[in-house]
Fold:
Amino acid sequence: MSSLEESFAKYDLAFKGKIRNVYNFDSDRLLIVTTDRISAFDFVFNDLIDNKGILLTKMAKFWFTKTKHIIANHIDNTDNQKLPTTFADRCMLVKKTKVLPIEAIVRGHLDGSAWESYNKTKKVNGLEIGGQYQKFDKLESPIFTPSTKAEVGKKDMNISVVEMKNLVGNDLTSKIIDISFSLYKFAYEYAKERGIIIADTKFEFGIDKDDNLVLIDEIFTPDCSRFWLYDKKTQEIKYESFDKQFFRNYLINNNWDNNQINIPDDIKRVLISKYQLAYDLITS
Ligand SMILES: Nc1ncnc2c1ncn2[C@@H]1O[C@H](COP(=O)(O)OP(=O)(O)OP(=O)(O)O)[C@@H](O)[C@H]1O
Ligand SMILES: [Mg+2]
Structure:
C-alpha cells in the first residue's frame, strides 16, 4: 500500500478509477483522492507523475467555483476540516451521485478522433458537418459528440445523440446538451482571454438523491480537455498540446507496446510543466 493509500485506510474504498481513489465518506458523500497516476489509451501506468494529482484537483476546484452559476456541481465543502491534512490538496469531498453512463464531449475545434472521422466521412458521431475544415480548425459553432462511459477495462465508444437518448432519456439528453454548451462557451472565452484555447473537453453528470442533475468528476483539466496556447497579441494559436496528448504522442513515437514502462524523467518533467503552465495561465 502506498503512503497515500495508507493515509486513507480508515475510509471504506468505494472504487478505484484509473486516476482517482474514491472512498465512502458518509452515506451521502464521497471522498475523491486524485493520485499522480497517468493513463493513456485506457491503460494505467504504474509510474507516477509527481504533483499531477494536486494540479488536477486545484484546477477542477477552480472551474467548479467559476461555473456554479451555470449548473450545480458535486463539491461539498461543509466538512473539509475533517479530512486528513497530509493529502488535503488532493482531496475533494463531494455529493454521492448516480453517475449517468455517458460522457458529454464538446468540441470547438476539430482534432483527435473527431478530425479523423470528419476527414474520412465529413461526419462526427453520425452528425453531418458542413463547411470545409482543416485539422485544428475552429468549428462555426461547437458540436456535442457523446460517448459511452465504459466499465473498467473497456473502451468508451462514440455514440450519436439518438443513442444517448436511448441511454438516459430525451429530457436529460437535451438538458445535458444545453448545459455542456454553456459550460464550454463560458470556459472557452475565459481561458482564451488568459492564453489557453480549450479545443475540446469532456463532462460527466450524475443524479443526486433529490433527483437533481449535477456536474461531477473533474472539469476543464488537461486530463479531460485539449489545451493549446494562444497568443493574444498576434491572435495566433500554437497547436502544441498542453495536456495529456503530449504523453500520448510520446507513446506513439516510441512504438509503445501496451506494457508497463518507466516514463523517462524528461517526459515527466515536460508533462508536469505543461500542466503547471496551463494552470498558471488559466488562474492568473
Ligand atoms: N460525485 C460523484 N458521484 C459518484 N461518482 C463520481 C462522482 N464524481 C466522480 N465520480 C466517479 O469517480 C470516478 C473517478 O475516477 P477516475 O477519474 O480515475 O475515473 P476513470 O473514469 O476510471 O478514468 P478516466 O477519467 O481516465 O476515464 C469516475 O468513475 C467518476 O465517474
Ligand atoms: Mg475520470
